[in-house]
Amino acid sequence: MKETCTCSFDFRQSIREIHFNGIKIGGDKSFFFLKENDNNAKPVFALELNIFNPEKSSHIVKDVYGKYFDDKIELVKQAQLSDCDILGLKFNIENLNQVNEACLLLNKLLPFISKPLMVRGVNVSDIDKVLIPKLIKNLDRECIIAFANEYTYKEIIPLIIDGNHILVIRTPIDVNKLKEMNLLASKMGLDLNKIIIDTDMGGLGYGLEYGYSIMERVKIAGLNGNEILNMPMIAFSSEESLKTKEASSEDLNGSFGEFKIRTKMIEVVTACSVISAGVNIVVLSHPESVQVLKGLFK
Question: In which band, very low, low, confident or very high, does the pLDDT at 251 lie, cut at 50, 70 and 90?
Fold first, then answer.
C-alpha cells in the first residue's frame, strides 16, 4: 500500500516584519507558499566593532581598521563606508568601573553615526544589567539593543519600552526558555513586534550543527503560526566563528590555506549556514564579508 504523508505543518504564516530606520527585518514566508511575484525577505547585515577596546578584535579586523583604533570617531566613519545595513557597537568593557566611560564614548560617537545603530553589551550579566540600561539612557534615536537574558531582562525591558527601542533576547540554545523569555517580556509590556530572537549559536560548545537545528526549529514554529516564536532571528556568527583555532591560528599546515583568506572564508561560510537556518540579521566583523554576502542576495 502506498504511504501518505501526515505532516501537520502548515507554513502558511510569515515571520513578523520589523521596520527599523528604513530597513525591513523579517517578513519571510515558506518557499512552499511564495507566489510568483512575491519577494521573500532578504537577510540584513550588521558590521560590529569592539568599540570600547578595539584591540580585542580579530586579526582580520586589525588588518582593516588597525590604523584607526586610536581615533574612534574615525573608526566609526570608516566602518560606515562599508556596505553594511546596520552599524553595531559592542561596548566591551572589562568591569563596572568603566560604565561611565562607555557612556561618554557613546555620546561622543552618536553625532557621527548615520547608519541604523545596534548597541551591545559585554555578555556578562552582572555588568550588562548596569551597563546596558545606562547606555540606553544616553541614546538619541531608536536602536537595536543586544541583548537581554534571563538575568538582565528586568533591568533592561522597562527602558526599551520607554525609549521605543528593539530588543534582542538571548536564550542558551533552548526553545522552551526562548518561549518563556518572550512571554515574560510581553507580560512586562514589551510589544512582541519589538523583539528579535537570538538563540545563541554555541558553535564552540554544542557545535554549529546543534545551534543550527535550534534555529530551524524556531523558524519552523514561527512559519507554522506560533506567535511567541515568529519574531526575526539574529546570529552573531562572526564572533563565534572567529574564535575557532582554524580562524585564529597561523600554526596549521599548508593544507588549511593562506591564513587571512581562510579566516574570511570561515566567517562567510558560517554566515551562510545561519542564513540557511532562517536567520534574518547576521552580525559580521569584516567589511569584505558584508560585500560578498550582500552580493548573493541582489
Answer: confident
| Residue in 101, 98, 169, 189 with CA at minimum distance from that of residue 138 | 101
The kind and range of the H/E element at 284 are strand 281-284
215 within 8 A of 258, measured Cβ to Cβ: no
Strand partners, 166: 144
Class of residue 276 by CB neighbours under 10 A (exposed 0-12, middle 13-18, buried 19+)? exposed
- Pairing assessment for the beta strands 23-26 and 117-120 based on DSSP bridges: unpaired
Reported as a single tens digit per residue, the pLDDT across 40-92 is 689 999 999 999 999 999 888 999 999 999 999 999 999 999 999 999 999 99
H helix runs in 206-282, sequence order:
208-223, 237-241, 245-248, 259-276
Q: What is the pLDDT of residues 98-146, one digit of tens each?
A: 999 999 999 999 999 999 999 999 999 999 999 999 999 999 999 999 9
Please enumerate in sequence order all residues whose Cβ is within 8 A of that of 46, keeping only pairs 6 or more positions apart, or say none.
84, 85, 86, 87, 88, 118, 281, 282, 283, 284
Helix (H) or strand (E) holding 283: strand 281-284
Q: Which three cell numbers stand for residue 31?
A: 518557499
Element (H, E) at 25: strand 23-26
Using CA atoms, how far residue 159 sits from 104, 148, 163, 246, 274, in Å, is: 19, 12, 6, 40, 30
User: For the purposes of burial, counting CB atoms within 10 Å of the CB of 102, is it exposed (0-12), middle (13-18) or buried (19 or more)?
Assistant: buried
Please state the domain extents for the chain: 39-295
Kindly report the pTM of this predicted structure: 0.92
Q: Which fold has domain 39-295?
A: TIM Barrel (3.20.20)
